[in-house]
Amino acid sequence: MILSVSRRTDIPAFYSEWFFNRLREGFVLVRNPMNYRQVSHIELNPSVIDGIVFWTKNPAPMMDRLNLLEEYNYYFLVTITPYGPEIEKNIPSKERAVETLQKLAAQIGPARIIWRYDPIIFNAEMNLEYHAEKFEFLASRLKGYTRRCQISFVDFYKKAINNLRLLKAEKPDNNIVLQTGKVLADIAGKYEIKLEACAEKADLILQGISPAKCIDDRLIAEISGKNIRVVKDRNQRHRCGCIASIDIGAYNSCRHGCLYCYASFSEKSVANNTSRHNPNSPMLIGDVEAGDKVTKRKMVSYFKDLEPELFPMTKSL
């Protein structure tokens, strides 16, 4: 199985102590976001966890304990955007974010870090020229520290639409998407970074941009040196290329406060949930309650036995 840590919240930034406690205990409990009383018991044994994908804007709190992940195959998706605190309220400065990614690459290698320039927001000030300038600055600093960058144009999710209106954000038409993709792909290529697009409607192949897989079986095969066979994640958007995974996060628990966030209803809901976090609990937010139905998830490895290695590499890519 593949562990997603996490689309729903930034576990590396805010809950790394809890995560390492769960690895030590060997299991985690995850409440179903669509059915509150349904709880999954997920085993964290390296024999059944084929890979771990970390999603974060700040991996720094985890970086002094990466030795605890030696038995696991893992990589990081690190988001660094050009926006200031008026849009991303509680994240590190861009200078610090870049330095942290560079230090992470020095520890685990650039192949296990994917930079996300996501989402791309347009308004009167944040136009194509703005994004070209900011993207080039970041790409120039990240050359040699990552090999891939994933982009995505902002989606007007119901949870974020009021905030996006405050920013006077505009939905880019297909021509702007294609033009932006071409400009960013050319810049990325100059700095030896491959550009990929995450779940985009526009066909960006002719702009030199491949469809992205955030949860990527190819990268897990490369890291592990093993063949892997896993189906596409049917629970994601139609255009999402991700393979199936188990997400161990919880909505309404990320304290970054980004105005475009789809995973949090409000600052109040985040504050209420984070007050219930216990790093020693098997569950990220709260604990098992009376009336909960806890079901042990069937865990199987996706690695194929008795097959030659696809990529005879070590983990220090």
List the main descriptive attributes of the protein structure presented here.
single chain; 317 residues; alpha/beta; eight-stranded parallel β-sheet; three-stranded mixed β-sheet; 11 strands; globular; disordered C terminus
Question: Describe it for me?
Answer:
It contains eight helices and eleven strands. With 317 residues, it is α/β, with parallel strands linked by helices. The chain has one domain. The strands form two sheets. The chain has an eight-stranded parallel beta sheet. Strands 2-3-11 form a three-stranded mixed beta sheet. Helix 4 packs parallel to helix 6.
Topology readout:
Blueprint: E1 2-5, H1 11-14, H2 16-25, E2 27-32, E3 35-43, E4 51-56, E5 74-79, H3 94-108, E6 113-120, H4 128-142, E7 148-153, H5 161-166, H6 174-190, E8 194-197, E9 210-211, H7 217-224, E10 246-247, H8 267-274, E11 293-296
Parallel strand pairs: 1-4, 1-10, 3-11, 4-5, 5-6, 6-7, 7-8, 8-9
Antiparallel strand pairs: 2-3
Domains (count): 1
Strand order across the biggest sheet?
Answer: 9-8-7-6-5-4-1-10
Strand and helix order: EHHEEEEHEHEHHEEHEHE
Give the amount of beta strand, in percent.
Answer: 15-25%
Number of helices: 8
- The helix content is 25-40%
Whole-number radius of gyration?
19 Å
What does the average pLDDT come to?
A: 93
- Quick one: how many beta strands? 11
The assigned structural class equals alpha/beta
Based on Cα principal axes, name the global outline. Answer: globular
Low-confidence stretches: 306-316
Q: State the end-to-end distance.
A: 22 Å
Biggest sheet details = 8 strands, parallel
